[in-house]
Structures are given as structure tokens and as C-alpha cells.
Design a protein that fits this description.
mainly alpha; Preprotein translocase SecY subunit
């Protein structure tokens, strides 16, 4: 890995892309420390420390690199854009016009990207308003006003600042994708999570539990190795292409394979489950008393009902999102269109049924894997009463983004006849 990075810096074009990526990420982290006007940032950060990192804002605060607890300009992070992308991706299955746009190639994808940006602005505005009222509801718990002047002008300035910050973050992420190395949106989440690594190391080193202090490095390495093993696991379906005539030329057939990953849904099911389970706690915080607080107390993060419902939701969303992103019927039609077939399987409907059967067998262990990775850190915290910095969702994102970025860097080097560690 180190050799690949050093080799990349010897190529001027790749070096410029790497430096540009690092510069944009540095600006992103700078914006995470610029507070918005009108909010008592010190009181909100103090309240977040009282909550111990758990509760309603934990996941979003992690994805924003702690800027949400500081009420910084980039407090919303990139989550509204991710939510908008997921919504548009799901709507392409339901809305025929969007499905038609998706099949129109680059022109259709440009139109869908434009819709995603518009939806991101709307979600960011709505989320900003929600945060303002949520922080106001925390005032009694904090013992002081988190929004000192709760009138239209100060509130509008806070909402406008947070929305504008989200739009800037979205633009910066697209710049990295176009001119840098890797996926800009994923790298920004990666940078936000890794930004808390020094604090996590300090918490581990100062942990009063000596047993946890000793086993933690070995446990982290084991979890990372398991995630890498499953993330890279795939079932390769052999594909044979028959000879065909294109124009006046006879194209010879060839053999390749269709890779079906064990975890085709990625980290999306974990994010979906965590977002849904955050609703009861949000309702409880907004109402403060009554049935809302009872529901919030029942779904406290880390207790048995929370873990059970989280595991069930992750398994459900894994099957759902895999079905959305991979359509066996379309894959079978594309294979038949280009003269490809699976040896021993007839083209058309039998091929679709074969792919669907293989996909169902792969999705089940993949769903169990996601549920286990999401639950294990919580179980460790409950058993040791220690601070486990990287949760399951964070580990999946960090490792997945690192692997994808290194593969893209490796591909850039292979184009210039450099040998890297991934191709060995």
C-alpha cells in the first residue's frame, strides 16, 4: 500500500489529483470548525459531552466530524445529499420516467444528478429547521438557552447558514470526484470519521478497564480483517460469449465472469436502520413527557430491544436494497442482447432465475454480516463500560472507502505501467 502511494507521487498527473483532493478535504475540515451565528455553540458542545456521544445526534455528529455538536457551518455534512441520492435511486424503480432517464446513459444520469441536487437543497433546509427546534428542546436539559434569540431573523440566519454549508459541501464533493482521486462524497465522510481518531485513541489509552485496554488493538485488527474479507468476497459467475458478426467483421467469442459480491448493499442498510431507530429518541426529546418519552426509553441505544430491532431492520433493508440495485431480469436481457450466456443455463428467463437464486443465497450471509458488525461494538461497550470509538457503521465506511480509493489509485497506476500491491 505504501509503495503504491509513493509510486503515485512520482506521476505528475496523479500527484496533482492527490494534492487537489487533500486541499479540498482540508477546506472541508476547516469549515467544520466555523460556527454559525446565532447559536450558543459552547452550550451545545457541552450538552453533547453530557450525553456521552450517545443519543439522537450520535450518528449524524460522527458523519459530520463533530461539527454538528459545534453547530459549525458544515454541521449537516453530506448526509442530505446521500439521503437525496438514495431517495432518487429508490424512485427509479417506482417512477417509469426516472427509470427511462436512468437507461438513457450520460444524458439521463446528468438529469437525475440535477434532481438530486434540488432535492438535497430541500432536505438540507428542512433538516436545518428540525435541528433548530431540536436544539431548543434541549435547553431545559442543558440548563441554558441553546438558541438565545429564538425569533424569526436569528433562526432564519441559522437555517440559511446550515443550508448554504450543505450546498458548499456537495459542490466540494463533486469537485473531488471530477478532478481528484476517488469518490468525493465517500471521501468526505471518511475524513469526518477519521478526524475523531486522535480522540478515540486518547479515550482508549485512558480507559480504566485494563483488560479492554490490552485486548482492544487485537480486537480492532480482527474486526478490520473480517470486514475486508467479507467486503472483497464475491461469487464469480462464468459468462461465455458466442461468435458474432459486427458489420463485416467476425468477432470471436470470449469468456469472462459476472462478480456477485457477498455484500452488494454496502453500508446503506445500516444507515437506514440507524436512521429509523433514531425517530423514537427524537420524538422523546421533542415531547419530553408522555408516550413519546416511553417509546424513546424503550429504544435506548444499546439495550436488547434496540439491538434486536436494529438487526431485523438491517437484514430487511439488505434484501430490499440488493433487489433495487441488482435486477436479475435486466442482467439476463443484457447478456442475451450481447450474445452472452452462462454455461449450462439457457438464456432468458432461466438465466434470470439462476441469478436470482444465487443472489438470494449470497444476500443472507451478507445481511447477517452487516447485522453482526453493527451490533458487536455496542455489545463490547455494554460488557466493558469502555469507549469503543469506531462503531460498526463507521468501520464499514472507513474500510470500504479506503479499499475503493486504493483500487482507483491502482487503476491509474496500471494505466501507466506501474505495478501495485492490489494486482499481485
Amino acid at each position: 500500500m505504501l509503495r503504491t502511494v509513493l509510486s503515485a507521487f512520482t506521476v505528475p498527473e496523479i500527484r496533482k489529483k492527490l494534492l487537489f483532493t487533500a486541499f479540498v478535504l482540508a477546506l472541508y475540515r476547516l469549515g467544520a470548525h466555523i460556527p454559525v451565528p446565532g447559536a450558543n455553540a459552547a452550550a451545545i458542545e457541552s450538552l453533547q459531552e453530557q450525553l456521552g456521544g450517545g443519543g439522537v445526534l450520535q450518528l449524524l455528529n460522527t458523519f459530520s466530524g463533530g461539527s454538528l455538536s459545534r453547530v459549525a457551518l458544515f454541521a449537516l455534512g453530506i448526509m442530505p445529499y446521500i439521503t437525496a441520492s438514495i431517495i432518487l435511486q429508490l424512485l427509479t424503480v417506482v417512477v417509469p420516467s426516472l427509470e427511462k432517464l436512468q437507461k438513457e446513459g450520460e444524458v439521463g444520469q446528468t438529469k437525475i444528478t440535477q434532481y438530486t441536487r434540488f432535492l438535497t437543497v430541500g432536505l438540507a433546509f428542512a433538516q436545518s429547521v428540525g435541528y433548530v427546534f431540536l436544539f431548543r428542546s434541549f435547553s431545559a436539559q442543558a440548563g441554558q438557552e441553546l438558541i438565545p434569540e429564538f425569533t424569526f431573523i436569528p433562526v432564519f440566519i441559522i437555517v440559511l447558514s446550515l443550508t448554504a454549508g450543505c450546498i458548499v459541501v456537495m459542490w466540494m464533493g463533486e469537485l473531488i470526484t471530477q478532478r481528484g482521486i476517488g469518490n468525493g462524497i465517500s471521501l468526505m465522510i471518511f475524513a469526518s470519521i477519521v478526524a475523531g481518531l486522535p480522540g478515540g485513541i486518547q479515550s482508549w489509552w485512558n480507559s480504566p478497564d485494563q483488560v479492554f485496554k490490552v485486548i482492544m488493538p487485537f480486537l480492532a485488527l480482527a474486526i478490520i480483517a473480517a470486514i475486508v474479507f467479507i467486503q472483497e468476497g464475491q461469487r464469480r459467475i462464468p459468462i461465455q460469449y458466442a461468435k458474432r458478426v459486427i458489420g463485416k467483421r467476425m468477432m470471436s467469442g470470449g469468456q469472462t465472469y459476472l462478480p456477485l459480491r457477498v455484500n452488494m448493499a454496502g453500508v446503506i442498510p445500516v444507515i437506514f436502520a440507524a436512521s429509523l431507530l433514531a425517530f423514537p429518541a427524537t420524538i422523546g426529546q421533542l415531547t419530553g413527557t408522555g408516550w413519546g418519552q416511553d417509546v424513546a426509553d424503550f429504544f435506548v441505544a444499546g439495550n436488547a430491544p434496540y439491538l434486536i430491532f436494529e438487526a431485523l431492520l438491517i437484514i430487511l433493508f439488505t434484501y430490499f436494497y440488493t433487489a433495487v440495485t441488482f435486477n436479475p431480469v435486466d442482467q439476463a436481457d443484457n447478456l442475451r442482447k450481447y450474445g452472452g450466456f452462462i454455461p449450462g443455463v439457457r438464456p432468458g428467463r432461466p438465466t434470470a432465475e439462476f441469478l436470482d437464486r444465487i443472489l438470494a443465497r449470497l444476500t443472507f450471509p451478507g445481511a447477517l454480516y452487516l447485522a453482526a458488525v453493527a451490533a458487536i461494538p455496542t455489545l463490547i461497550i455494554n460488557q466493558t463500560n469502555a469507549d469503543f470509538f469506531f462503531g460498526g457503521t463507521s468501520l464499514l465506511i472507513v474500510i470500504g472507502v479506503a479499499l475503493d480509493t486504493m483500487k482507483q489509485l491502482e487503476a491509474q497506476l496500471m494505466m501507466r505501467n506501474y505495478e501495485g500491491y492490489l494486482g499481485r
